[in-house]
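Try it yourself: sequence plus adenosine-5'-diphosphate, in.
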Amino acid sequence: MKNIPEIFGSLVFNDAVMKARLPKETYRLLRRTMAEGKHLDLSVANVVANAMKDWATENGATHFTHWFQPMTGITAEKHDSFISPTDDGRVIMEFSGKELVRGETDASSFPSCGLRSTFEARGYTAWDPTSYAFIKDGTLCIPTAFCSYGGEALDKKTPLLRSMEAINKRALRVVKLFGNEGSARVTTTVGPEQEYFLIDKKVYEKRPDLIYCGRTLFGAKPPKGQELDDHYFGSIKPRVAAFMKELDEELWKLGVLSKTKHNEGAPAQHELAPIFTTTNIACDHNQLTMELMKNIAKKHDLVCLLHEKPFAGISGSGKHNNWSISTNTGVNLLDPGETPQDNAQFILFLCAVIKAVDDYQDMLRLSVATAGNDHRLGAAEAPPAVVSMFLGDELTAILDSLENDTVYDAKEEVLMRIGVHVLPKFKKDTTDRNRTSPLAFTGNKFEFRMPGASLAVASVNVVLNTAVAKVLEDFADELENAEDFQKALHDLIVRTIREHKRIIFNGNGYDDAWIKEATEVRGLSNLKTTPDALMHYLDPKNVELFTSMKVFSEAEMKSRRDIRMENYCKVMKIEALTMIEMAEKQFIPAMSKYGKLLADTIASKKAVCTTLDCTFEEKTLTRLSELTAVAYEKVCDLKAHMGKLAEMKKDFIGSAFFIKDEIIPCMNALRAAVDEAETICASEYWPVPTYGEILFSVK
Ligand code: ADP
Ligand code: MG
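Structure, out:
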């Protein structure tokens, strides 16, 4: 057994390493930059770069890279070696401050949708000194933000850092109103729980849909799915355990606080949860976690599926985004606290989140909208596409009594008064186990459950941070000018509850009656698909939110909306083409072949004796012929649709809606025919591994 405290962070240029290796003054200046987001002087950067290079080369690194998260959703890296030629024909290892703080990169192959014209196709990457550098596969990786020369964000990190600054500024104003002068910084924290599937490489390689799309496009329900609930928290199979052990060790070396691992609800499904940390670091770490999961799985002859819905009819994979706000003095602002003052502050922050979620429910919904997640949200076991919040019965009752000035504690006839009363101790997480709420308050944090497993979680946190920042700004404006603070606070809280309580729902989110009530009575939005959701990106109130908080310019928003529409179209196009190929080359020929066997059997039986019973063969052949005809017809329709889609060229909005309204129904019909055929064809004729074979492939 390796010594875990010793390996933890061994590949990270972390605080301990900096302290040990940097001159005192350099260390102090760097810490200040990290704590206050100040600019780093080039002379300081030079010293840091040199120390980093020495440390990295001692630990086996030969190259460095600016590691960033372009809009493609994965991370990108361009490796440069440290070598620098000397006059006498040798090389020395060099790394300058300039190379550390800023790298240039050809931005032209990353999506930007109009943000930079090709004649100035260069962008630059800038070090995010609040996220530590680390060594991965012999390369020193420097977490960076990626911008165009015009300064527009081309990545997911830049807006995230801006949103963290936005909420810091406003939350500090509010915290000060409660007399907490000592706080210098407020940061949001995130702990993303990551779900994933592990399947055997051999079955994976036989499924073009898994290879090209990361999810199955065909597949009949297996006799055994997850109905016995025997997988969740079940004992972990040896091959999976070996994978998890190696994954943990590699993550720990990179300073990722991987904490919990267990089996999830579906067969072959698992989860990893880290200990939460500052949002930008948590997002970086989650990207690393996903990358390592995929790579380490390969070493074990496994494949890690991060798709949000790899198998129809079986739980999809989510990424629960646990989110909270804390001061640098260690106060969690979403923790009820012990004194009337703390409670009042807690209730105000809680109200800020409630209002933010209600006002920007469409932005939250669209922050998780992807082609893959469309199969998951609103399906039986995932949160619905309607955003609502779970507060639990007790906290809801407290808000009710505040709103209505009614007695909360019947025994003592207590009227809840803000700033006067200590909140009664309510149990954490009591009714939350049903997991049907998209956004649940779980005692001292919110758990946002809509993100899909493969999502780069930055997008969600940009929206949460920015929306709450905006509300806190309005709150601070109102309260800072109040003559009677306690009264103004009470009025603001009551008004906020009254105006926004429609977003609170403690019942069963999977219930159809809820969706009806949510949309028809409460007027909540129900954006069912990615194209529907993305159409709200540029609504004036959303543009106003992000521009006023200086998180996005309008041009950046427009480009992001376009990139995501385009991405939806690309993903769906690949899926449709894969379906056509699998149906034409594999399934329809297999159906014909089995049909021929049946026809031959009928003919030979009849040749022996005309009265021999052929009911099975005849019925099966008839149905199979019908299904083959439907499958063929749908393939032809799909091909025709693909032709039309090609004509729509760069009209991504038109294309997205055409896909949603015409292509997806056609894909569904094709799948239904093939899946039924699977159930009646003999196993040896079926050309790909079945759901049963995939889901139970890891012994
Ligand atoms: P559950 O399965 O009940 O949701 P887990 O332990 O799997 O619980 O996950 C809870 C996650 O919430 C962990 O990643 C944890 O670190 C994170 N978390 C706890 N407190 C906070 C906080 N203040 N801010 C952000 N995340 C938090
Ligand atoms: Mg959870």
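One thing you can check immediately is this: The first helix runs from residue 4 to 7.
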